Amino acid sequence: xxxxxxxxxxxxxxxxxxxxxxxxxxxxxxxxxxxxxxxxxxxxxxxxxxxxxxxxxxxxxxxxxxxxxxxxxxxxxxxxxxxxxxxxxxxxxxxxxxxxxxxxxxxxxxxxxxxxxxxxxxxxxxxxxxxxxxxxxxxxxxxxxxxxxxxxx
Length: 153
Prior knowledge:
This protein is of the alpha+beta class and 153 residues long.
């Protein structure tokens, strides 16, 4: 079998070009970073669990904009999550609460909330960097719980 130098160089150039295109496509794939917080809301000055601390000021301000009736908000748990581009990520916040975050398109994400293993609600929203989505439900004794999902990157 005989190879010509010109055809070998052309083949090598084509392979190199293909590798560049594939590596550029892989480099463009990205993850979206989120912070999920499980929050306990109450009119009381303290949480029933002494390990719960008040939420950070940014979260408190966001909850105040919603004009909720509760006076105090306590952080039960905070989890950072990375959602792959065009993918989904499940985030466990407690033994009774988890969420799933799924990218729908460039800026829209679907957040599904599960309580005690059952689907509680699902919401799709544009969540750009710095924005927060708040989901919640009632609890006993004039209290409530929320899941706040903030896109950090």
